[in-house]
Amino acid sequence: MSPPRPPRRRRRHPAAAAALLLACTAALGSCGYGSRADQAPAAAQAPAAGAGAKLSAASVTLGYFPNLTHATALVGVREGLIGRELGGTALKTTTFNAGPAEIEALNAGSVDIGFIGPSPAVNGYVKSGGRGLRIVSGSASGGVKLVVNPEKIKTLDDLRGKRIATPQLGNTQDVAFLDWIASRGWTVDAASGRGDVSVVRTNNTITPDAYRSGAVDGAWVPEPTAAKLVEEGAAVLLDETDLWPDGKFVITNVVVSQKFLKEHRDVVEAVLRGTVRTNEWINADPDRAKASANAALGTLTGKELEPAVIDRAWPSIVVTDDPLPATLRAQSAHAVAVGLLESPDLTGIYDLGPLNKVLGSLHKTPYQDTDDQGR
User: Fold this and answer.
1) What angle do CA 282, 283, 289 make, to 5 degrees?
2) Which of 43, 131, 206, 208 is the one with CA 20 to 30 A from 224?
3) pTM for the complete prediction?
4) Would you say the C-alpha torsion 36, 40, 43, 47 has a positive or negative sign?
5) Contacts of 183 (CB under 8 A, 6+ apart)
6) 3-state SS assignment for residue 342
7) How confident is the model at residue 368 (pLDDT cuts 50, 70, 90)?
8) In whole angstroms, what separates CA 176 from the centre of its chain?
9) Could you tell me which of 319, 290, 292 has the C-alpha nearest to residue 79?
């Protein structure tokens, strides 16, 4: 852990900080495990078709976030690594700021394949009675940190009585933090966030402002929000990778609507061939990939990340084809334990057949989920 440095904070009047904290909390509202949609998706980009014959669908719509944990999509789309595998089938893309909105689009048929975190994937699967989606590949691991104000918090024990932000009630980081709190013997009411630690659900776009104002004392957040907070003077107190066996846990999966998978399995395989090649490309040339991902963010959001932010954030995110199913099930169990989810039946949530067909064709080792051995 890097030694803490004094925070660069512009002081605000306490009333202003309290007003910001109230706005942060009100904006999130009440919701269940991975259940909140922040806003409508961005409009789909114009279709891009590669050379060659069309596959079984004239087009495929890919959904993802303008976020570094969706680096496979950012780079794969920008560099044409996904589109070129589709031949004459057009690639359409659309972006989201919250998993639930993407799940809704997937269920409605306006998105065919999506990059998404484990919590909304599980929630979408459970709410549809196992009929809505399948996880067909991994995409990313890691990239989540607990960052804090070093003037107020110097050890993990110092978190007691402090205000710590998570992105939203029941999202992947919120569940991880609540589970970590419970592991220390502390108590927090999951719904309200009140207890030995105050859990403040705050949109990632607002969190740096909330930290700067003093409305929160730290945050358990994904990159690049963690790196942005460090630039504001926060210190990394804990990297979530240290809590998982082998330092791996799923942060982003690739999901597909079951209807699209059934009708256009060849298209799903082509997209996955593109994601596998993209992950190879990223791992082979991380500096070039970092620049590509940042350029994609600039196109999608209107502003690239500052060099210091992306340089700090990028190394902690590992792109991978491995869906890491054991970690998804552990995350679901954590949500059950903290009272945000009833015990789910996740049998059938994975279909790794298309991924393994692609991996086999590229002479790579296949993955297997124990519940889906026949797929």
Assistant:
1) 30
2) 43
3) 0.85
4) positive
5) none
6) coil
7) confident
8) 13
9) 292
Local structure of 63: helix, strand or coil: strand
Looking at the predicted structure, is the pLDDT value of residue 51 above 90?
no
For residue 34, is pLDDT > 60?
A: no
Query: Residue 272 to residues 78, 130, 136, 182, 362: CA-CA distances in angstroms?
Result: 16, 22, 8, 38, 12
Distance (Å, whole) CA 144 – CA 132: 28
Domains and CATH numbers, the chain: 14-34+143-247 (3.40.190.10), 48-141+249-372 (3.40.190.10)
8 A C-beta contact, residue 141 and residue 320 = yes
pLDDT in tens, 296-310: 999 999 999 999 999
Q: Which helix (H) or strand (E) holds 354?
A: helix 353-361
Do β-strands 113-116 and 59-64 pair in parallel, antiparallel, or remain unpaired? parallel
Mean pLDDT over 39-68 rounds to 75
> What is the C-alpha separation between 14 and 236, in angstroms, rounded?
25
